[in-house]
Write a structure and sequence with these properties.
single chain; 212 residues; alpha+beta; 7-stranded antiparallel beta sheet; 12 strands; 20% helix
Length: 212
C-alpha cells in the first residue's frame, strides 16, 4: 500500500512541475520584427523641375550658351520661326532683331544677329525691364537663380570670378566669364543696386542700342 502511495505522489509532483514549466514558458510565438521605417528617397521626394515653356520666357534658363531656346550662334530666321507668334521682327526697319513683351509688361526680351548679312548667326540675347523702375526678380534666371532684379552682392557672391565694369556709353555691368564665345552681363544704371537687364553676347559688352 505504501508503494502505491509513493508512486502516486511522485506522479502528481511530476505532473505539477510539467504544468508549471509549460505555463511559465507559454506558447511559442514568432518574435516581432523590428527595423527602420522605410523613407522616401531624394528622387521620390524632390519636386520635378518644370520643363521650359516656349511661350513663357520666365521659365527659361540663362547661360553662356543663350537664354532658353535662343542660342548664341543659332540661325536667326529658324529660331524666330520656332518661337510663338508673340515674338515679332520688323523686317523693314530692323530685320536683324526680334522682340517679345510679357503680357503684364513686367519684362521684355530680344535677340539679334549681325546687321550686315541676313545669314549672320545670333550674337546677342537679352532680358530686361524698365531701367528706372526695376524693383525685384522677373523673367528667366541662371542656374544660380539670378536674373533681372538681382542685387549686386547676390551676383558677386554667386560668381566669385565675376568682373565689374562701366559701359562705354552709359551704365555699369558685372560680367560672368566663360570658356565659350559668349559671356553673361548683368547691367545696372550707374550707382544702382538691382540689375535691370541680363544679356548674353559675343561682344565686348551689351549693345547700347539694338535698332538705332
Amino acid at each position: 500500500m505504501r508503494v502505491f502511495r509513493t508512486a502516486a505522489a511522485l506522479l502528481a509532483v511530476t505532473l505539477l512541475l510539467a504544468g508549471c514549466s509549460t505555463a511559465a514558458e507559454g506558447p511559442e510565438t514568432e518574435p516581432p520584427t523590428t527595423g527602420p521605417t522605410p523613407t522616401a528617397t531624394a528622387e521620390e521626394t524632390a519636386s520635378p523641375t518644370p520643363a521650359p515653356d516656349p511661350a513663357d520666357p520666365a521659365t527659361w534658363t540663362i547661360s553662356a550658351e543663350g537664354i532658353g531656346p535662343v542660342h548664341i550662334g543659332g540661325d536667326f530666321d529658324g529660331t524666330l520661326a520656332d518661337l510663338p507668334t508673340s515674338w515679332t521682327s520688323d523686317g523693314a526697319a530692323c530685320s536683324w532683331a526680334a522682340f517679345w513683351n510679357a503680357p503684364d509688361a513686367s519684362f521684355s526680351m530680344h535677340f539679334v544677329r549681325g546687321s550686315e548679312n541676313q545669314s549672320d548667326p545670333i550674337s546677342e540675347v537679352s532680358a530686361s525691364t524698365m531701367a528706372d523702375a526695376v524693383s525685384g526678380p522677373v523673367g528667366p534666371v541662371t542656374a544660380e537663380g539670378l536674373g533681372v532684379g538681382a542685387a549686386r552682392d547676390e551676383i558677386l557672391a554667386g560668381y566669385p570670378d565675376a568682373e565689374e565694369g562701366t559701359g562705354a556709353v552709359d551704365g555699369e555691368w558685372i560680367r560672368i566669364p566663360s570658356d565659350g564665345e559668349a559671356q553673361i552681363f548683368f547691367q545696372f544704371l550707374t550707382g544702382a543696386d538691382l540689375a535691370w537687364a541680363v544679356t548674353v553676347t559675343t561682344r565686348d559688352e551689351p549693345s547700347y542700342e539694338v535698332c538705332g
